[in-house]
Amino acid sequence: MSNLFAARQSPIHGNGVFAIAPIKKGTRLIQYQGKLLTHKQVDRMYADDVETGHTFLFTLNEHFVIDANTDGNDARWINHSCEPNCEAVIDEDDDGDPTKDRVFIEAIRAIKPGEELTYNYGIVLEEAHTPRVKKLWACLCGSKKCTGTMLQPKRKKKQA
Questions:
Q1: How far apart (Å, rounded) are the C-alpha atoms in residues 144 and 79?
Q2: How far apart are CA 17 and CA 76, in angstroms?
């Protein structure tokens, strides 16, 4: 248990994580933890869940995904926001071992006690962003800058 934050019910969605003490900009709050899986393992395990729009899966790198459904910690309860106060930072292993890469959640501004910790999930799907898909990945952050979806614009393909 951290002395900076606590998990509890959220007005955004389900559970959330809230500051219980002042948090300074740049503070590394928590490591996103869970079982390390390959992308193929995730595709097999969660093939039936693609229609839920709810996930504790965090893409770590091109090889692995962190599955916070197994051995996850409070980081999995940090909700998405279009106007976040935190960001996810991937710490790559110095020796280039992708199994040792890690994800940390860090404050990108000062956070007051009582504020919910949030970060932009940065979800990019290759499939078309149809109204059905956007509804599936709806954002409920309540920010004045809310886009209504957790989906990010597709990456532009480089022309040859």
A1: 16
A2: 9
Can you list the alpha helix ranges (DSSP code H) found in 34-74? 39-45
The DSSP output letter for 95 is: T
As a whole number, mean pLDDT of residues 44-69 equals 82
pLDDT in tens, 75-107: 999 999 999 999 999 999 999 999 999 999 999
Q: Which pair of structure tokens corresponds to residue 47?
A: 């093939």
**Distances in Å between the alpha carbon of 13 and those of 83, 95, 118?**
15, 38, 11
The superfamily (CATH) of domain 5-122 is SET domain (2.170.270.10)
Report how far residue 77's alpha carbon sits from residue 141's, in angstroms, rounded to the nearest whole number: 14
Strands (E), the chain: 5-9, 15-19, 28-31, 35-38, 57-59, 64-67, 79-80, 86-91, 102-107, 118-119
Q: How many CA atoms lie within 13 A of 17 on its CB side?
A: 27
The ranges assigned to domains in the chain are: 5-122
The rounded distance, in Å, linking the Cα atoms of 25 and 11 is 24
Residue 160 has pLDDT above 60, yes or no: no
